[in-house]
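Notes from the 1:1 (GR / supervisor)

We went over the backlog. Supervisor wanted to see one worked example end to end before approving the batch request, so GR pasted a single chain during the call. The sequence is below; no edits were made to it. Supervisor asked that the structure be written out right there so they could see what the output format looks like.
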Amino acid sequence: MKPSPEDLIRSCYKAYETKDRKLIEGLLTEDFTFSSPLDDNISRERYFERCWPNSTHLARFDILNLFVEGDHAFARYRAQASDGSSFTNTEFFTLRDGKIRHMDVFFGSEDGQSATENEVRALAEATATPCRAKDATALMDLYAPDVLAFDLINPLRYTGSEEVGKRVGQWFDSFDGPIGYEMKDLKVAATGGAAFCHSLNCVTGTKQADGQKIEMWWRATLGCQKIDGKWLITHAHSSEPFDMETGRASLGLKP
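Structure output shown during the call:
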């Protein structure tokens, strides 16, 4: 049984709230296209590259108006971001056979610069999910093949996604059970096809070697580049302050 147009559109926003990509994939036709003031009739594949990452920082959608006429619908909503900010958009849907065939988004507050920064923010925030899942392969999908990483431990640098992925896998394996992972105070600056961002990150968990429970904050900086139309991490730098008198890392610091 095909969903009603109202249910179909509400499910679309629900997928963004719950970060359920499988749900929204089932709502869109295979030849789905998307347009906005920043996108000119892009394909379904490009939509998932360009727009879906925004789900990571969108927490809630409140539908203010929803009008349906035949195979077309207008929806006006207020979206709330995870940082507490909000904005209002209007979207026009073209429907076919119980799915969304095309979507036009109308907004006035976002420009190209802020859209770029939101894409980079979504990339940075997306690193948290594979870390919590201890999935090195999924994490490396967010990195460029020639990524350069400055880690907290020896050596001075790790070069290439294969080497970085191996190091990440070893780090995940050092924990017994799940990992807690948090990002705080994420700031983004982007221009053209290059960007950088910085944040305070925290990991919690139990060490495999001795059963020690840890909660450690560190400083993280990411350099990003748009490669073949997709933002990827090209440089990752992690650092921990240390006590000049003792020469030991200050692992107990908290923001």
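Supervisor's comment: Helices lie at 5-18, 21-27, 44-50, 112-126, 128-133, 136-140, 161-173.
Batch request approved.
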